[in-house]
Each structure stands twice: as structure tokens, then as C-alpha cells.
Fold:
Amino acid sequence: MDLGIKGKRALVCASSKGLGRGCAMALAEAGVDLVINSRGAEALEATAEDLRKTGVSVTTVACDVTTEDGQAQVLEAAGNLDILVTNAGGPPPGLWSDWGRDDFISALDANMLTPIALMKAALPGMMDRGWGRVVNITSQSVKAPIPQLGLSNAARTGLTGYVAGTARQVAPFGVTINNILPGIHATDRAVALDTGVTQAQGITLDEARAAREATIPARRYGTAEEFGQACAFLCSQHAGFIVGQNLLLDGGATVATI
Structure:
């Protein structure tokens, strides 16, 4: 399918690997010029080289996008954006009794306030030009909370509420905002979570993964590639009537009728 976005310009955050990389690659395959970001310059440049093989322009910005300075850097590099994909690693797991104010502030900065700041910067130009796409990578936890991920539950649910109202205010200008809610995917985040299980239960990494896969109706982890294709569709010309929605990509793990 021709997504109709060849020649558009996108900023994809935290895109040197994992789900962000999957999104960047799918957009590049659709002909979208890219600004990509991560904290680590080496992995970022390696990803950029792979993306350039599709024939698109790729600009790299190695910085911490959760800081005001990092946000300023990526926005300056991006210029007039058509597409914004926000993404940041989730806060660490733990117990409700473990977390203090600073832990919540850190989670909010990364997983709520940073996407909001980037949207506030990008939306006016999109609205003026009469077209824009924003996709926020959040988590399945906004549909069904994950007990040990209370920091993520709180921050990402806050972002979801912000998007619900904002998406309906910008839609008349040809701009859509939607969220993708990943379940477990075969990324470094999955390895980190499964490693935590190995330490807590005294089992191997393969055993931890097999136990988690057994709880997923699809009986496997998702891939960054299929996640990226879903993101690219939401960024396409064909998705203009999808407004303020939360798309679960979790292999059926979240048990809900709606």
C-alpha cells in the first residue's frame, strides 16, 4: 500500500533501536525524510546508515530528549515537521512503597511532559499547513495497569488524558494525534523485564520468556518491524479519520471487550 507520505518530514524520538527504530524504518520505507534521536551517538549513527539505504534523508541528534536542551536540539534540527513520533524508555519496575516524589517527577518528565512539550512545539506549524500526524508510543498499561510498573502506569495514563482532549481540538485543522500501546516486544526493554524475573524467581532467561509468552494469546513477543508498520499507517494519508485513539499492539494480552 502506498501510504501517500513520500517526501514528508518526521521526527522519531528514541529511535536508535527497539520500537522507535522500527517506526523510523517503516517511515523511511514509505519515503519519509527523518530526524532521529537517541542518547547514544554510536547506535544512532549505525541506525541512520541503515535508514539511508532506503534513499531518504536522515539527520541524527544525539541528546537526552527528556531535557529542555535536548528538546530544543531535536526541534531545531527537525524544522517544519509533518510527522512526530514520541517515544521514551519506561521507568523501572518496583513496588508502590519504593517510590518517592523524585521518582514520579522523573517518570512524568520522560513519559508525559516530554511528549506534551514536543507536541506543543510541533502542532502550530502542522495546523497552519493543514496536515500533520502525531503518534505517541505509550503502553498497554493505560488500558490495564501492570502492578509492578506503577510509575509508567501513572505517567502514561496522564499523557493519554492530555491527548484525548488535544486530539479533538486539532483535528479540524487536518492534524491527528493517536497513541500506540505496545505490549511485550522483542526489544531491550523485554530483556530487562525478563532479567528481573530471572533474579526474582531463580530461573533462566529462556524460562522467563517462555512463561511470559504463555500468557499472550499470540504465544510470542511482538517485533519492532510490525510495530513500525502500524505506526507508519497511523502517519499515512489514509488515517485522517482516526482521531484520539489508543491502538493496542499486545498480541491479545490485554483482556478487554472494548
